[in-house]
Amino acid sequence: MGSLIEVKNVTRDFQTPGGKVSVLKGITCTIQPDTMCILRGKSGSGKTTLLNIIGALDDPSSGQILIDGKSSHSMNAIARENMRRRQMGFVFQSVSLIPSMNAIQNVEFAMRMAGIKEDMDKRAAEVLSIVGLSNRMTHMPQEMSGGEQQRVAIARAIAHHPRIILADEPTAELDSGMATEVTRLFKQISEEEHVTIIMTTHDVGLMGAGDQLIELKDGRIEGSGEDV
Ligand SMILES: Nc1ncnc2c1ncn2[C@@H]1O[C@H](COP(=O)(O)OP(=O)(O)O)[C@@H](O)[C@H]1O
Ligand SMILES: [Mg+2]
Questions:
Q1: Most-buried pick from 55, 94, 116, 158 (CB within 10 A)?
Q2: Which atom of ligand 1 sits closest to the CA of residue 45?
């Protein structure tokens, strides 16, 4: 089962040469296990900052994140790294597949990095089939469209059975048809693979695609609601 994520009064300030900048100004929200949450906001609203804190890549200045009731920010560096590697999967705006490896090799490489040793080829084929690329398994990245490459990146992110997927503007470089398709795929994966997904976007057209919408504006939650 995916994880329950609780964000409690999180702030994040950055020290800059021009003084302190408050980027997150007190964020509180809860994301239920096995659901997909869309985190929407304009460029500069704080989406990446919040996602990095949830993914334990960064620390809040105050407040806390609880994952299944546990605070990742009080763990030591090794425990955090292990949690990130085993329980989380990341998808980014720019797809970074290894150009010299085909689709299945890219997925298997990521599984090795996550410490998986058994049945790699079977699971790699399975996740590529989940993302609709059964007929592209031996294609090289340069032989695939942007949307297909992003789907390989999604297969790679779910292969090690993470409980949480954090996807930072994964559709920003895709045309609107492909962006909708990739977003639907995330929703399907949250249900079928039992993963909790947070996807950020600046695109208002994708707002309704998840189970939950959180809108960020200047570091605050503007409105949040659940659509069924
Ligand atoms: N390391 C940093 N130092 C200073 N300011 C930062 C840093 N990271 C992000 N910011 C600022 O925080 C704001 C929000 O950034 P970000 O979270 O990347 O927004 P988004 O992902 O919504 O576009 C921006 O104004 C950005 O310049
Ligand atoms: Mg961003």
A1: 158
A2: 22
